[in-house]
Amino acid sequence: MANGVVLLLLFHLLVMSSIAYVVEERSIYLILMEGEPVAFHGRKFDTNSEASKDHAKKLVDSHDQVLQRTLDKGSYNKLYSFKHVLNGFAVHTTPSQAKKLQHAPGVKLVEGDRRTKVMTTYTPQFLGLSQTVWTQEGGDQNAGDGIVIGFVDTGINPFHPSFAYDILNPLTSNISHFYGACETGPQFPSFSCNGKIVSARFFIAGAQALSPLNATIDIPSPADAVGHGSHVASTAAGNAGVPVVVNSFYYGRASGMAPRARVAVYKAVYPTVGTIADVVAAIDQAVADGVDILNLSIGPDEPPQDTVTFLSFFDIAMLFARRAGVFVVQAAGNSGPGPSTVLSYSPWSVGAAASRTDRRYIGSLLLGNDLNISGVGLSAPTFGNGSLLYKLVLAKDAINLSGTFARTPPYVDECQYPEAFDPNIVRGSIVICTFSAGFYNDTSTLTAIIDTARVLGFAGFVLVANPSYGDFIGQPIPYSVSGTLVTKVADAKILSQYYEQQTLRDERGFVTQFNARAAIQDGRFASFGGQAPIVSRFSARGPDFIDIDRNPADVLKPDILAPGHEIWAAWSPLSALDPILTGYNFALISGSSMAAPHIAGIAALIKQKYPSWTPSMIASAMSTTATKFDKNGQVIMAEGFEVGSSNAANNFDFGAGFVVPSHAMDPGLVLSSEFEDYIRFLCSMPNIDRFAIRVATGAWCSQSLGHPANLNIPSVTISALRRSLTVRRSFKNVATKPETYVGLAIPPNGTTITLHPPWFTIAPDGTQDLDIEKLTGFNCLINTRTILNMKT
């Protein structure tokens, strides 16, 4: 009996030990410390000065001392010391050890790490850059010269022509303000930093701590195994006029927004995992290096759980980057079109929403009865370019009846497995595959269809919509075999009706004769026209919010709209996350990730023309000159939940409107907000604890704006207007001559707006206050471009 008791107790202890082990699994924690970082310690931020180096060493030593003094030996691994624009560190430890840090002297904030993700040629012409802004700046041979754009992303493909150094037109501008480094490693030799790429670093400690990495794709160097970082960098700053050739087909030439800007690479997101720790370390280093513009087409994949959105570690890192004089642009997110889906929250970063341009790639399927069905796919035509028709076979009519595979949709309908088919039936035929459960659940892929088609010798394939799942969204992806996507159920029914009319079956339903014929037309030629821009369906929407419960904030998000749908740009042939693009040097992809670098490149052009302008002045110039109308003069539309649906867009869809670079180069008036203004904004918010503001920013709430809507930015957003409120905006004339402005307000429903003064004349470098009085209503938003729309 005694032995039984001992065994029972031992079993109990083992169970408790197992439970404790699960609870105490290590995680990454971000810690913010008391004391100024290097950037704000002295009068001048110079990372190479002895004073800066000494202060940086003191900060690192203090981080180590806190860890050694507070945590158990062997219970942690310090990943980074943040010392340039933030004073803090990242540590990999257990929850119980992290709790000890919360009470350690000198520690202000402890925050759990969150996962990060990527927010995934023709646009220079669509935006009017080549005809206007580039001409003003000396053409594409000068546009962006002297400006360094930093990219925190998945790395870069250093061998891509978009980043080649042109020895016949060398970059000679002075970038002495920039200090970078070229960290070499696998697939990133020392000559990768060639003068166009002026710096390249990688940050991997967080990824290594969180998950076992795959050395073949999680490359420990600045090399891009994904393609996303290369795409983003070339969209903003890729060389001008680079030929886009995919599958031996010439699609035109690609150019970045600021083709002469320099590129600084900060790889912080990996195919296996991305962490905030790596991203914050990259931001900290990018600002220390001296980048002018910082592009973040990556970010947390959810709002912070236990703090307000503005005070998360990630947003505070962006605040201090802005304080150091860096223009920061974020991807707004890809979870639209639902309300409050934005992942860009704070007024100190510019959140870019994504739009379509007027370029479309339209393929088609020519039937034997001369009907043409619209399709999608960057595909070569079947042999004969429509003059030869091929046998049309429905996938489930070509099943290998003696096969031992499962009779499930991926095998029977979706063409995922070559062994499912009778090769004698499908060889030389166009096979109809059907969108079914596998595609709906993201377990089936176009790559598998293409592989099946190649193995079995299809003449081509068609993936058609399924009435059980409705219309689907098809992106024009390059196919190495002929193929097209029929995305609408109505078109799929036309194809099905023709096929059944022409196909003979026996009494059991088996096909005895395939008489339907078809040809796949060329889908690689672009057409131009129609309404544009249109807010893309996936583009994240406002209103902005302050916490995980989506309580509204008095800030307009997204900030601005830019092209982000079907953008050609550089790619990595490894294409670790998109096998269908493996081997390609260019890709046509969509996302607010693609919109952000358009804004980054345009910001570089403005910075080049006005080197003394602050980031808020650059942001203001783009916002106050943005348009709410498309190229035909109609109100910009926004795609809705239903495929093919759209409605008139509003400020929560596109922010200030669609960016117009030529107008942004001459805005007339600008609004400016700096670090102290952002602190006063935070201190004006009724639902934020003032001590939390002190902890996150290091600043006391000695002053307030009275109401958050008094922050001097190019929009006025009031989430809950009770009776009346008067807010103020202060404008500066950046033109070279006196100008007169007449105000016009279009009140939202249920409100009235009065402007004081109704008009004003302002001298060069002069300032003018404008009081905006709003009466009654609720959820009121106006944009200063609406208020000030007449200039003489």
Automatic annotation (TrEMBL):
GO terms for cellular component: extracellular region. One of its GO terms (biological process) is proteolysis. The active site is at residues 153, 228, 593. Residues 1-20 form the signal peptide. Its main location: secreted. It is found in: Secreted. It comes from the Eukaryota. Keywords: Glycoprotein, Hydrolase, Protease, Serine protease, Signal. Residues 51-117 form the Inhibitor I9 domain. It holds the Pfam family fn3_6. Residues 710-765 form the Subtilisin-like protease fibronectin type-III domain. CDD domains: PA_subtilisin_like, Peptidases_S8_3. GO terms for molecular function: serine-type endopeptidase activity. Residues 144-633 form the Peptidase S8/S53 domain. The keyword Signal applies. InterPro entries: Peptidase_S8/S53_dom, Peptidase_S8/S53_dom_sf, Peptidase_S8_Asp-AS, Peptidase_S8_His-AS, Peptidase_S8_subtilisin-rel, Peptidases_S8_3, S8pro/Inhibitor_I9, S8pro/Inhibitor_I9_sf. Belongs to the peptidase S8 family. This is Subtilisin-like protease SBT2.4.
